[in-house]
Amino acid sequence: MVENSLDEVSIIKQKAEFGDSLAQLQWALICLCGKRQKEAKPLKKRVAEAIIWLEKSCKQHCTQAQFILGCVYDVYTENKEEAFRWWKEAAEQEDARAIVRIAECLLNGNGVEKDIDEAIKWYKTICPFIEVESFLEKYKMQNKQ
Q1: What is the pTM of this model?
Q2: Residue extents of the structural domains in the chain
């Protein structure tokens, strides 16, 4: 990964503060990585700051930010319900990565009530020509035990 120069980072932050959704996403990722300052903040503070900037970008319907915010909630805060909510926002805008995450959550009951039929619907939106039902039927049989 190429390191951003201090000037580039300053420009990104300035654009983010002026409401540029892509810059807000970039700034959130810089916050999360902790590479913008000499002494990195503790992870918990970096995550909190990243969430603030991601939410600003999400309000402008940035699907990348919605997907990443779902991942941040899933991995860093373990808040599966919030992760599902943000992935669903992105999935409703046809983000394939988010659609897969939504289907997996529904299939396994992560952050949402388990609903295999709904998972099939989501899988079908990205792979309408694949026979998902046979795979999921096997899944249903294995999980009845």
Answers
A1: 0.81
A2: 1-60, 80-145
